[in-house]
Write a structure and sequence with these properties.
Layout (H helix, E strand, L loop, with lengths): L7 H18 L8 H9 L3 H6 L3 H32 L1 H6 L1 H20 L23 H13 L6 H12 L5 H21 L1 H12 L2 H21 L7 H19 L6 H23 L27 E7 L4 H16 L5 E7 L4 H11 L5 E3 L4 H4 L8 E5 L7 E5 L5 H11 L2
Parallel strand pairs: 1-2, 2-3
Antiparallel strand pairs: 1-4, 4-5
Helix pairs in contact: 1-8, 1-9, 1-11, 2-4, 4-7, 4-8, 4-9, 6-8, 6-11, 6-13, 8-9, 8-11, 9-10, 11-12, 11-13, 12-13
């Protein structure tokens, strides 16, 4: 079953992946070849496809094989997503620097896509030779889908790279995010197979505006770069995403309406994004506040005594009663707490409900075995963390202002235990 969605960051990841899947269909290395792919899959010539009006014929000769073709490339993408999930634990260890570096790579690829500058090796294309017409069966259609995904032309590479980096940034969701990307690409494929004549007229009009399509794809990649850069950082994510989207809209308008070359406006946006991300990252690296200064309370409202945990590594879990992923994560932390007592670390829950009594009732209802105190969501930015829930931070045993790790998605029991045990001195 798919893990529950619970924060803006994750919703944004799914929206970006779906949008990038849809736009991948309209790239210069996919859209012009759609008639060729469908002709090859159906065993019909282009003229025969145009003349086929029978719904039964379309379903049998075009849609069925196209559906298996879609399953083929979707299988490859979901597998890549699962691999990205496997890298998520490593990503979580160095979220800020890796997010910044990934954003830099995607920005370079985006600017190439928009024509701000050219990277020669990315202009090389490797296409399928589908000139020889032969009858395609279910298995051959599926295998053709696998080959399509593995042998994709390089101009899709930047889009797929950004999706994979987003997936690595959301541990546990990689397969789902890549499935969403595959769905975005599959939907227009399947609609075209069903309504070939209608969509061919639309595609012919779109092909006359490929420069605009490439600008929009490049702009979306810049927004994806902003997501990768700011998602791990202690800022409200919607602000940089909204600002970046608005800036890229201005760049597109300058290009299309005012005929201003895209090079310098796009570079200015990219440099501004890097500068602001670097500034926030530098602030975060400087360290956060000491948790003993937050004035956390116990269930009765009295000041919580944190001195009992002196000399022990803390895994502090920030959660709220309205957070669905928190309900999924709490039993996993409870299992660690029960199975690893007296090993030099403590799991400490911090409920951030606005009404403390709501939090108290939630803690009792969830039967949380590890100690819980009550604080505020504003504690997270004070620690140099983004307000996302659940949010787990490993804190040094001897310096309560020193953060050793931060997880805003469940990285797995092995990763959490490994970090806690390695932090015990």
């Amino acid at each position: 079953m798919m893990p529950p969605l619970g924060n803006v960051s994750l919703f944004g990841a799914f929206q970006l992946c779906l949008s990038e899947g849809l736009l991948s269909f309209f790239t210069p290395c996919v859209l012009p070849l759609i008639p060729v792919y469908l002709s090859f899959l159906s065993g019909l010539s282009f003229d025969q496809l145009m003349q086929t009006t029978s719904a039964a014929t379309r379903l049998k000769k075009v849609f069925g094989n196209t559906l298996l073709f879609v399953f083929g490339f979707s299988a490859v993408f979901v597998t890549l997503g699962l691999v990205a999930t496997g890298l998520g634990a490593f990503f979580n260890k160095y979220r800020g620097p890796i997010g910044f570096g990934a954003a830099l790579i995607i920005l370079i690829l985006a600017l190439h896509f928009m024509g701000a500058f050219q990277i020669r090796f990315l202009n090389y294309e490797k296409r399928f030779d589908v000139g020889a017409q032969k009858k395609m069966g279910p298995l051959s259609s599926f295998l053709f889908g696998l080959a399509f995904a593995f042998g994709w032309t390089p101009c899709i590479g930047p889009i797929l790279a950004s999706v994979l980096l987003i997936a690595a940034n959301q541990p546990g969701y990689g397969g789902f995010l890549l499935a969403t990307y595959a769905a975005g690409l599959a939907i227009p494929f399947l609609l075209t197979a069903l309504f070939f004549n209608t969509f061919m007229g639309l595609f012919n009009r779109i092909k006359r505006h490929m420069v605009t399509v490439e600008l929009i794809i490049g702009a979306l990649l810049v927004v994806a770069a902003a997501y990768l850069m700011f998602n791990p950082l202690p800022v409200p994510l919607w602000k940089p995403l909204l600002g970046t989207t608005a800036a890229m809209a201005v760049v597109i308008v300058l290009k299309l309406a005012a005929k201003v070359p895209v090079r310098w406006p796009a570079l200015i946006v990219a440099l501004g994004l890097l500068a602001s991300g670097g500034f926030v990252l530098a602030q975060e690296t400087g360290g956060g506040a000491d948790i003993t200064q937050f004035g956390w309370t116990d269930a009765t409202g009295r000041p919580a005594d944190l001195s009992k945990y002196d000399g022990k590594v803390l895994l502090v879990q920030f959660f709220a009663s309205w957070c669905e992923p928190c309900k999924d994560e709490i039993p996993k932390l409870a299992k660690i707490w029960r199975e690893h007592p007296h090993e030099g670390f403590v799991i400490l829950g911090v409920n951030v409900d606005a009404d403390r009594m709501d939090g108290v009732q939630f803690v009792h209802g969830m039967n949380i075995p590890y100690p819980v105190v009550y604080g505020k969501s504003s504690n997270l930015p004070a620690l140099g963390l983004r307000e996302a829930f659940p949010n787990n931070v490993v804190i040094d045993a001897h310096n309560r202002g020193r953060l050793l790790a931060n997880y805003t998605g469940w990285p797995g029991e092995d990763e959490v235990l490994s970090k806690l045990k390695s932090s015990v001195r």
